[in-house]
Design a protein that fits this description.
The structure holds 2 protein chains of 2 kinds. By secondary structure, chain A is mainly alpha-helical. Chain A has helices at residues 2-32, 39-57, 60-81, 91-113, 140-162, 164-174, 176-181, 186-208, 219-233, 238-267, 269-294; strands at 129-133, 136-139. Chain A is 75% helix and 3% strand. In chain A, strand 1 (129-133) and strand 2 form a beta hairpin. Chain A is globular and about 65 Å long. In chain B, helix 6 (176-199) packs across helix 7. The longest helix of chain B is centred in the N-terminal third of the chain and has 27 residues, at 5-31. Chain B is globular and about 55 Å long.
C-alpha cells in the first residue's frame, strides 16, 4: 500500500511535467492552429540553461529563473523569426519547418555544451525526505515539483478564464479573424501565447531535469508523450490536457511497476518477464489507441 | 493523354535523370577508385524507395504520416531476426526456421509491414489533419520502444550481422554494386506499381476522398477501405526499404525506427516536390547528398541543415519538381 502511494505520487509528478508541456502545445494549437514539433526544444533549452547556470553559480533558484527565462526568450525569438510565418500554412509545412528547428537546436546544444550529458541537481534545501503518511518517506523535491506544477496550472487557468488577456485568448481560439476585426492586435496576442507556451515548456524542463539526463534530444520523447496526452484529451482543450496527462502519467508509472506482477499472475513467471518490459513501454500508446477507437477526437475534443 | 514533345523532354529530365544518376554514379565512383561512395548512393536509392511510398499516400491520399520510420525498422528487423536465427540455427518466432535469402526476407518484410500498417492506418484514419500526424508519430514511437525492449535481439544495440548480408536466390551479395543494382531494380519496380496504382480507379478514389470525402461516400465508395489499403501498401514498401537498409549496413537497431527517420522521409518527399513520384528520388539525392557534403565540412552539419530546411519550407515550396517545371515553362501545366 505504501509502495502504491509512492508510485501514485511519482505518477502525478510525471503528469505535472506532461501537463506543463501539453497545455502549451494545446494552447498554441487551439489559437494559432500551429503544430509545433519544436516544443521539445524549448523543454531542452530550459533544462540545459538551468543546469549550466546552477552549475556555474551554485544556485538552483538562479538556474530555475535562467532556464525558464531562456525558454521564454527563445520562444519569442523563434516566434518572430519563423513561427508567425507558419500560422497560415498547412500542418505539413509546420511539421517540416519545426523539424528543421529541432535539428538546429539539438545540434546547437552539442556545439555549446558538448556531447556529455549535464547534471541538474536537486537543490540542497529540497533534497530531503518527508513522511507523507507515517512510515512513507517521500522526496521533498518531487512534492515541490507537483506543488509548483499545480500552482502554475492554476495560474494559467486564472489567466485564461479570469483576465482580459485570457478572454482574448479564448476568443482567438474561437474565431481569430473576428477578434482581429474587433481591433485586437492579433500578432502581439500570438507572440504572447507562443512565448507563454515556451515558458511552460522551459519550466517543465527545469523541474524534470533532475530526473532525466540533460542531453541533446531529451525533449522529443517528452514531446511525443505530450502529443499522446493531447490526442487523448482532445486538441485545443485545457481540461482535456489535465485529464490526458493524468491518464498518461499514472498509466505509465503504475504500468511499469505493476505490469510484471500482473502478467506473472496471469501467465506465469517466464512469459511475464519477457513480455512485461515490452508491454509496459507500449502501454500508454495502447491506451491512446483504445481512446481513439472510442472517441476519435479525444475525450474533450470538439467533434469535427 | 498524348505527351507532346515538350512534356516528353520534361518527363525525361524530371523522371529519367535522377534514376540515371543513381545508376551511373556508383559506376563512376568505382572508375575513379572511390568505391567507398557506392553505399552512399545505395542509401539514396533505399531512402528514395521509402520516401516514394510515403509520397504515394501523401500526395494523392493526403495522409501526412510522421510515423513511417516504424515500418522502416520493422522491415530491418525482419531481415535481422531471420538472419540471426539462420546463423544460430535456432528457431525464429512462431517456430519458423531462420531465413537468410532476399527472396524470403523481402516479401516477408512487405507482408509484416503491410499487416502492421492496417491497424495503424485504421487508428490514424479515425481522424485527420494534425491528429493524424501526432497519432502516426506516437504509434511509431511505440514500435521504437518495443524494439528497444527486445533483449533477445540486442535491445538498444540491435543486431550486428557480422556473418554477412542476405543472399539472393542463393547468390552471395557481398559485392556492393550487385546490392546497389538490386536496390535500384526494386525502386524501379515500386515506382511502376505506385504509378499504376495512382492512375488506376484505386488512385482516383483516394484522390477523390482527399478532395471531398463526403462526396465520394455519396458516390457509393467506402473511402476508408481504400485509404487503409493505400496505407498498408505504403507501409509494406517502406518495410522492404528497411529490409534493404539492413542489408546495406549489415546492421539493424531501433535507430532505424527513430522518429527523426520519419521526419527525414517527409523532408525528402517535400524537397523533391509533390508533382510526380520521381520527386522522392530527387529528394533523396538532394537531402542525402547535402548531408554528405555538409559532413565533409563539419560534424555539426545539422546546425546548417536545420535552418536551411526552414528557409526551404518558407520560401521554396514545390521542391525540385516544382523548380524543374518552372524552368521548363512559364505557365502552369497539367502534371498527369
Amino acid at each position: 500500500m505504501l509502495l502504491f502511494l509512492e508510485q501514485l505520487l511519482n505518477g502525478v509528478q510525471l503528469s505535472v511535467t506532461l501537463l506543463l508541456m501539453a497545455s502549451g502545445l494545446t494552447l498554441i494549437f487551439g489559437i494559432m492552429s500551429l503544430l509545433n514539433l519544436a516544443h521539445g526544444s524549448l523543454f531542452m533549452t530550459g533544462a540545459f540553461v538551468a543546469a549550466w547556470v546552477s552549475g556555474e553559480t551554485g544556485s538552483w533558484a538562479l538556474g530555475l529563473l535562467a532556464g525558464a527565462g531562456a525558454a521564454f526568450a527563445v520562444g519569442l525569438l523563434i516566434e518572430t523569426v519563423v513561427m508567425r510565418r507558419l500560422y497560415d500554412r498547412d500542418h505539413l509545412d509546420q511539421v517540416l519547418a519545426t523539424f528543421g528547428l529541432i535539428l538546429f537546436f539539438n545540434e546547437m546544444v552539442r556545439l555549446v555544451w558538448g556531447i556529455r550529458p549535464m547534471r541538474l541537481d536537486v537543490p540542497d534545501a529540497l533534497s530531503g525526505f518527508v513522511e507523507v503518511v507515517p512510515g512513507a518517506p517521500y522526496p521533498v523535491y518531487r512534492l515541490v515539483v507537483i506543488g509548483a506544477g499545480l500552482a502554475v496550472m492554476l495560474a494559467l487557468g486564472w489567466l485564461v478564464r479570469g483576465t482580459r488577456i485570457g478572454m482574448r485568448i479564448r476568443a482567438g481560439s474561437v474565431d481569430r479573424e473576428m477578434i482581429g476585426a474587433l481591433g485586437v492586435d492579433i500578432g502581439r496576442l500570438y507572440s504572447l501565447v507562443f512565448a507563454l507556451g515556451a515558458l511552460l515548456a522551459g519550466l517543465a524542463g527545469v523541474l524534470a531535469g533532475p530526473f532525466l539526463a540533460v542531453q541533446s534530444g531529451m525533449g522529443e520523447p517528452i514531446l511525443i508523450l505530450a502529443f499522446v496526452v493531447v490526442v487523448i484529451g482532445g486538441i485545443g482543450s485545457l481540461k482535456g490536457a489535465v485529464v490526458g496527462s493524468l491518464v498518461v502519467g499514472l498509466t505509465d508509472t503504475l504500468g511499469r511497476v505493476y505490469l510484471p506482477d500482473i502478467l506473472a499472475f496471469l501467465f506465469g513467471e517466464g512469459a511475464a518477464e519477457a513480455g512485461a518490459a515490452a508491454l509496459s513501454s507500449m502501454l500508454i500508446f495502447l491506451v491512446m489507441a483504445v481512446v481513439l477507437a472510442v472517441f476519435p477526437s479525444g475525450l474533450y475534443g470538439r467533434k469535427g | 493523354m498524348r505527351p507532346d514533345a515538350l512534356t516528353l523532354r520534361r518527363r525525361l529530365i524530371r523522371d529519367g535523370l535522377p534514376m540515371l544518376l543513381l545508376a551511373v554514379a556508383p559506376l563512376a565512383a568505382m572508375a575513379v577508385d572511390a568505391g567507398w561512395l557506392v553505399p552512399v548512393f545505395t542509401r539514396m536509392a533505399v531512402f528514395a524507395l521509402a520516401a516514394m511510398a510515403l509520397h504515394f499516400i501523401l500526395s494523392i491520399g493526403g495522409m501526412v504520416s510522421l510515423g513511417h520510420a516504424a515500418f522502416f525498422a520493422i522491415g530491418g528487423y525482419v531481415v535481422g531476426i531471420g538472419s540471426q536465427h539462420a546463423y544460430d540455427e535456432t528457431p525464429a518466432p512462431l517456430g519458423l526456421p531462420g531465413w537468410n535469402d532476399m527472396l524470403i526476407s523481402l516479401p516477408a518484410a512487405f507482408a509484416v509491414g503491410a499487416l502492421i500498417a492496417v491497424p495503424f492506418g485504421w487508428l490514424s484514419l479515425r481522424t485527420r489533419g494534425a491528429y493524424f500526424i501526432m497519432i502516426t508519430l506516437a504509434l511509431a514511437q511505440m514500435i521504437f520502444y518495443l524494439l528497444v525492449s527486445l533483449r533477445a535481439y540486442g535491445g538498444e544495440d540491435g543486431i550486428s550481422m557480422w556473418w554477412g548480408r542476405n543472399t539472393l536466390a542463393g547468390l552471395e551479395m557481398s559485392d556492393r554494386l550487385a546490392l546497389h543494382a538490386v536496390c535500384l531494380v526494386i525502386l524501379a519496380l515500386a515506382w511502376w506499381v505506385l504509378s499504376r496504382m495512382t492512375a488506376a480507379p484505386f488512385g482516383w478514389v483516394l484522390d477523390g476522398a482527399r478532395q471531398n470525402e463526403a462526396r465520394m461516400r455519396a458516390l457509393g465508395y467506402r473511402p476508408l477501405a481504400y485509404q487503409i489499403g493505400a496505407f498498408a501498401l505504403s507501409g509494406g514498401i517502406v518495410a522492404v526499404a528497411g529490409a534493404l537498409m539492413a542489408n546495406v549496413d549489415e546492421f539493424v537497431s531501433p535507430g532505424l525506427g527513430h522518429w527523426t527517420v520519419s521526419g527525414e522521409l517527409l523532408v525528402i518527399v517535400i524537397l523533391g516536390g509533390l508533382g510526380s513520384l520521381s520527386g522522392a528520388v530527387w529528394g533523396a539525392l538532394v537531402l542525402l547528398g547535402l548531408e554528405e557534403v555538409l559532413m565533409e565540412f563539419t560534424q555539426h552539419w545539422a546546425v546548417i541543415m536545420g535552418p536551411l530546411l526552414v528557409v526551404i519550407v518558407l520560401f521554396a515550396r514545390g521542391g525540385v519538381g516544382g523548380f524543374l517545371d518552372r524552368l521548363n515553362m512559364g505557365k502552369r501545366h497539367d502534371d498527369a
